[in-house]
Fold each of these.
Amino acid sequence: MEYRLLGRSGLKVSAYSFGVMTFGGTPGWSHIGETSGDLARRQIDMCIDHGINLFDTADVYSGGASEELLAQALGAKRKDVLIATKFAGTTGSGPNDRGGSRHHIVSACEASLRRLNTDHIDLYQIHSQDLITPPEETLRALDDLIRAGKVRYIGSSNHSGWTKMRALATSDRLGLNRYVSQQIQYSLMFRDAEDELLPLGVNEGVGALIWGPLASGYLTGKFLHGSGQGTRLVGNGRLEVRDTERARDIVRLLEAMAGERNGATPSQIALNWIARKQGVSSIILGARDVDQLAANLAAANWSLSDEEIARLDAVSALPPRYPYDLQKNFGAERNPWPGLLPPV
């Protein structure tokens, strides 16, 4: 397993990490996963055996059960790994039971610490941007948690470029701890992060933790061949939106390239494409069963060639959008990261 620095921090994380959103299966979450007990422990042990040192969850996953089950599955191994969790989602019926206020951050952190059965959270992330709470309040509260020893590092998830940059600038102005990471959606299907979020991360020293690397399983190819019933995409009604001709072309190429590499799978090809992109610190894997997990973990054992990357870049290219099309066409010689984005 390769280990990479998380942004500009000195913390090393495994190039592949494991997300336990599938742990729990309480009402409203069962279509995502119902992993618990021995299966949860086996998956965690498999990850650790393969060198994964970062496990990601959130306080809203299965109403907190995901955090509890992660703690149980880790047991005494908790000291050997890094735990990332998130706050800002709705955790109660009160008016202050969500968001990035000091009130909610402190109470959410204490609740997560109890569920995780730990005295500190290695990476504490705001789950989505809060445009009501002043960034100074959110960042000061997080800085206080770091100074109190309850949190080691902080990050964001699902922020737009301008709110991420505003937060970083606020931390710099006030002398507060900065976000060292951004958890973002990125895959061959969804490459929007290349416009702002990935360049921002490279420039500002913010490591990208990638969620949805297989586009909720679409890139495995099972939907192309009609075997995706009972999955998350079908359960949440999003399959028809994603099942475009572009998406099918991507899957067809993944299957062809897997055939060219004996023993490889379309999923492994898709994961390796992300692993070669600048700014990516770790790719968050998810799995319903051990066979799926084992197959995806094998992606860490090899990498794609430049020619293979170029083929995947071409088939998955998005239509150029203003102003990024002009920037790439007329400002290419002023781009300090020529390998980050493909030309238009």
Amino acid sequence: MSAQVKKRNWLFRLIMIVLLLAVLEAIGYIAMWANSRSFDWVNTKNYFKVRAMLIGDTAADQRARYLSQPYLGYIPDPGYAAHGEVQHNDAGYRGEKIPLVRSRKLRILCLGGSTTYGLGVPLPYQTYPARLSFLLNKVIKEDSALHTMYGGAEVLNAGLEAGTSAEELEQYLMKYRYYRPDIVIVHSGVNDAEIMASADRDFQLDYTHYRRLQFHLEPLPQPARFFMHSYLFSYLAIRLFYANFYYSGVNGRQCYVRQRGQQFAHWSDIDADTIRWGAGHLYLPFYRNTQSLYAEVIRDSAILLVLPNILNEKDSFVNSSPRYRDLCAENVRISCDLADRTGGIIVPFAYDSIHDPHSWLDDCHLDSTGEWNKASVLLPVVVRCALQRHAQR
């Protein structure tokens, strides 16, 4: 066989190998795409997101949406971007970053779950805390007395998707109290109601039956990280070694329920209905967590505003889930009762406060118009509190 023929044969084999690798990579990419179409409520963690974490990709649009943190549970991942805009600032919450050190501006802290975070709107400036900040600054600028008192306002959005009263309490105690807010708005209760409504025999008072621990994966060491640049290798590795990380929930909500097979201590052997109807809410997590949170806010000399977390009365899920609906209403009553006892102020917010019924996107989330309505309801109450706050100094 001539040298020229041998050269052609080797070239042919090389081309076939390259084509085979390209086909395998295409198969790997398609397999990853096919397993990445479900929506993940908390982390948008599909196969491509898992791969990005494992190879250490720090691009804003490839970041995990949330990070697990000791003492805080989990936080919005600093630098995470979506819809062409950075969603989380480098301090680990959504929207405008507020400096830790106080100025003479009126400072407001908004605590809550996804209805505070603004799950229904794509951009941070469309959330009710951001809208409230805009309206407040406009009022303060136009009112000479308020402008003399404060010069402006700053509103911190500490909302946490899927956050419960447990996260609100721990994050206030360990982080947000250090911002020394003048006013704290608490908008809570829906997620706790969802946990109680879906409680099974594993129910625990600390919600460990529900909350998974891991929201983020650290990058792999070399050379494994290098091989993860291959889509086929990535698909096989994720499928074989990270199945519990990816497949870990029901109804598409993979990232804020516990991992399949995850161990936790079954220390509170009381079923959910006994807890719910127990005398004085002795073992009701929402009551005890919220009671502690309100007490700490008042102890820190901030004004407490309780914004009832109401449901969309026209939503089919609400109307077909009486247990969930009743538990949400019960949590509103508990919030208001505790506010009365601790000296908090209840904001008059109800279903009819949202002018356009179409602003409701589901059982509890609003579009940008609805978020504006919510901020408008808060505005006069906050202005009165600002005047009261200044008089107390």
Amino acid sequence: MVTLILNVDRDDDFGRKAGIRGPIIGKDKNLEAAIRLVLADPEDSDANALFSAISLYDKLKNENKDVEIATITGDEEVGLKSDEKINEQLRDVQNKIKIDDVILISDGEEDEYIIPIINSYAPVKHVHRVIVKQSRNLESTYYIIIRALKEKDLLRKILVPIGLVFLAYSIAVYFIMGIRTYFPIFIIIDPNTFAISFVFLTLGLYLILKGYSAGTRLKNFYSRMRVAFGEAKISISFDLISIIMSIFGLFYEIEVTYNITNLFERALYVIQNMILFVMISGIIKEIGGHVENYIHNNKLNPYFWTGILMLSGVSFIIYGFMDYLMIMFNIINKKYDDFSIFIIFLGFLIAILTSISRRLLYRESAGDELQ
């Protein structure tokens, strides 16, 4: 049972600073790489992480554990491009070493983003985090600021929020001043109070989007779109139709409910009627994916119907719940809520039966393959 001690250099410091390409397999090669990197940049944390990995390798070897060590490198453009290179190098390591599990050496949070990629080859049983100690003199405020200004990633993390605060405050103040010029009635609004509120709103949105890696997701989405258009994938047409259907449904429902003055009632009507458009959009997208699969693999996925039925079941549940809610608030003039309960029950039934039937079919197909 081979345990791989895996050191990850996601932004390719080994390649950029020491001219070393990954994957680096074996203790001797990794020790040489660590020495070359620490000579090129004595302050680089990746060198310290690799020395820590080698130390752990020696310790486990002395305990008669079956271990191997490897370093994989990504790309300076951290994100989709670097993760694709890491995936390729992991495949190379897997071809050369039969890995049973992995100990990941991490010197930062970014390295741990690739755990799902590693898990696709072998389970990560432990993450060994390396924290570099510094002397008190080096921990001075001046040194920290100078180091921060040299690190591009850290610079973005510090300067972007500060820049957003100044930008949001300035935009809000000028906006209120402009409104006051043309609409004197708004003199009751204090520009500073509005600006501070706008700053908190902007920072809140930024932190939420940052927390969900919105920038990386958009970048990955753009890359996938470029690849899809380049390969002339038919699924992209279905995706576009799906998006257009949802947008059309939203505007259509807003227009239809224009005469409803109560905003709460209008919102409930729009959400309830939008469920149908969203369901149809989801079904179109699902069909597109299966058509694409059929064109490339010349066979239809036997479970293509499960996604469609599950989506339909969930849509029925939400629609029934919204209908019941509108009856409860006397928005819809219905004496009985039997229809709402029936729709919710039907949705649950479809979802449960779909899930059970898919599991049974999967077990049957797995049994046939074993025979």
Amino acid sequence: MSVNKANGELTRTITVGDPGVAQAVFGPLHRHVAHIQEAFRDPNAPRGAPAYRLTLDAQGDRLIARARAGGDADLDRVQRIVEALADLARRKGRVREGEVLAAISFSEGGDQKGPMQLPQLGGLTLRTPRQVHYVEALRDENVDLIFGVGPAGTGKTFLAVAAAVEALKSERVDRIIVTRPAVEAGEKLGYLPGDLAEKVDPYLQPIWDAFRSQMNENDLKTRRERRQIEVAPLAFMRGRTLSNAVVIVDEAQNATILQMKMVLTRLGEGSRMVVTGDPSQIDLVRADQSGLAHAISILENIPGVDVIRFAAQDVVRHRLVAKIVEAYHRDESANG
């Protein structure tokens, strides 16, 4: 690291080494570098002063970081981000925008020492601390009931499926059961063509997409035929005892209080249950009949139950989605 004696500016050159890895880390047209620099925007900068606490300049396989006097911690943080992304690029051969945002998120805090490892689940890079907390709960053998609640796009269902597949493949459970209420957002199942399975299947497609991200089509087909993986409407759970399984109750905001009680009491020996939902997207005729908030209110303090509440900051879809979620939240708050 060098110091410009005229203004005390600090300069650090971070060398990636491999040009291909550097290209993946810096991104097309250095887009990833721009994301990293944006994390160092100074909201308190006076008008006319530099908007960023540091500047970044990618040259070949090197990233030159220039920080203000006293900006050693910022330079350390940039180095942790670049090194973590370089490690990811060497292992995967690429770096996605979301992984850059994850590295930025996990690099916060100036007291970190040593290399930074980005947390993973089933080949997915976790993006926020709440996602890490969620996955830790999903893997914790002492937690038998997990509630994951919050806005769309926070990974609630996707991560639950990934953790369930991990448990199935490692033979910690015998099967995965995913269920969700067949409540339509302004549409009626009865008017759709086909038998019941064909009517319901479109509502379960996001679940199958999550499974396909974790296993190939042949493996998924085989496990479905062996009934190691089952996806069905909530009504099909009545009267069953679900043992030695990971049970995922998806879109739980559309389950009534009685339906929620019914499915929660299906839990059998050796099983764990994950309940996911977004309280802001209730499609029931009467929103006050939703069983999700009710269940959390009476079960949250019971040992073996964990509740993870996601926020707009945890949205991992297009960056605009987080802003859309926040805008709707402001509008709902303003209108009671």
